[in-house]
């Protein structure tokens, strides 16, 4: 067999006529860490797969999805802004994708395109593996009402959280998310939760009962803003766990302050890793090499940090 070798981030990818293609679609997409993570995993297990990133405009989304079937791709990940718009073009949705109302992974099962949402799974596994806490019977307080909040709130309901409370600067956006969750959760005879205003006094009323405190906003991304300044820290119980969906930087000011005060913290980087691991399993049927995927992402950040430091010195 004549294999073509492609060097990718220090990994030698071997490509032939039987190589299976997977990837991610979004806009923009150049920032994605998924190719780094997945190609390292394929290499570790000697699987004949390659993962690529594709920038897809909104008007081209339907044709891009048709291409999965036409070209025989094993599947793709879906990221911003296509996670909800892609749904009408799929043949079937998994229960959690229906509950969350968004798709981030598509599996091509013999020409049938099935939409999954592995973001919620990634959140749940990150909590379990990094902080030793499960969602069942927990009170979850979610800051924000965007795409990450949809996945995290939906997974919390599916996994049996006692309550889910939302807060967002735009109250109507939080209301819309909660109404959607309540409609979806009626299928499992649960009430999704409630909304409180973005206000320190309102937060002070709910935080003493919150087991898991989650930031899903972009506050703190790339050092922009400090959510820690809005938190009434004196009202939080000592065994609460803090999670930040932001992973650039790996430890936001929000998490740094929580850690300084003695709380367990979980970076959104692990949600990224575990959601990717679940997608990997769907496509390949193989157990994902979590440690390899984690190392690939951490190595990427270490190298980027060195490059940024070098630019600063220049």
Folded structure, characterized:
The chain is of the alpha/beta class and 314 residues long. The protein has two domains: 4-119 and 271-313, Leucine Dehydrogenase, chain A, domain 1 (Rossmann fold, 3-Layer(aba) Sandwich); 120-267, Rossmann fold (3-Layer(aba) Sandwich), CATH 3.40.50.720. The chain is 39% helix and 20% strand. It contains ten helices and 14 strands. The chain has helices at residues 34-44, 61-71, 95-100, 119-131, 147-158, 171-185, 200-206, 253-260, 268-284, 290-313; strands at 4-8, 11-15, 20-26, 49-55, 75-78, 92-93, 105-109, 112-116, 139-143, 163-167, 194-195, 212-215, 241-244, 264-267. Strands 4-3-5-7-8-6 form a six-stranded mixed sheet. The chain has a six-stranded parallel sheet with strand order 11-10-9-12-13-14, with helices on both faces. The longest helix is centred in the C-terminal third of the chain and has 24 residues, at 290-313.
Please describe the structure with a list of short key phrases separated by commas or semicolons.
shikimate 3-dehydrogenase (NADP+) activity, six-stranded mixed β-sheet, alpha/beta, Rossmann fold, 314 residues, globular, NADP
